[in-house]
Design goal:
six-stranded antiparallel sheet, alpha+beta, 197 residues, Alpha-Beta Plaits
């Protein structure tokens, strides 16, 4: 069933990329179990869902909590970007997610990385959030949806699993593929990343 405000199921599907992470227990179990359960729910929001392996990664920023379990998904969905984000937030809530502290421990974190070739709110707005200094990133949250995720190109814990499900997806602003972005990361962005199986 599509959430309120979603497009009709007969609407053309767009590819969507989603990052998953957890470093605290949820009602569904520990982080790895939670991500596996969440993948089933996310897959129901579209078709042709592809899931990466689970990866362990240090908490970001360093020292902010226990290690994370991360993964990525790609799927084709008839949902609009706002409707898909709303559906992802509803899944987070079912997994006990509470937004008390930015970048704190979380039972489930679902980030909409990209929706088709959309750039939201526009290229200038996207660039402003991409270039936001780290200290402001830790304090400020955008009021509107920013797509593609403004820092996906900087994060090994996003790009490494994403390359397993969408290696050839091309960033609509930079033109770089996921593989190229992953391979261009500094060595430090890969530190501590290891597959769980």
């Amino acid at each position: 069933m599509l959430p309120p405000g979603a497009q009709d199921a007969a609407a053309p599907a767009r590819p969507a990329l989603i990052a998953l992470g957890a470093n605290a227990p949820a009602p569904q179990g520990g982080p790895a179990a939670s991500l596996r359960a969440a993948m089933v729910e996310i897959a129901a929001l579209g078709r042709n869902a592809r899931c990466s392996r689970l990866w362990r990664s240090p908490a970001f920023p360093a020292g902010s909590g226990p290690d994370f379990v991360n993964a990525a998904m790609a799927l084709d969905t008839p949902l609009s970007a706002p409707a898909l984000l709303e559906a992802l937030h509803a899944i987070e809530a079912r997994f006990g997610r509470e937004r008390q502290r930015r970048w704190g421990a979380r039972s489930l974190d679902l980030d909409l990385l990209a929706h088709g070739e959309e750039v939201l709110p526009d290229r200038a707005g996207w660039a402003r959030w991409r270039d936001l200094p780290l200290e402001r990133q830790m304090r400020e949250t955008p009021e509107a949806l920013i797509l593609p995720h403004p820092r996906l190109q900087d994060r090994g814990f996003v790009l490494v699993p994403l390359a397993e499900v969408a290696p050839d997806w091309r960033h609509p602003v930079t033109g770089l593929t996921v593989t190229r972005m992953r391979d261009g990361l500094p060595a430090a962005a890969h530190e501590g990343l290891e597959p769980l199986g």
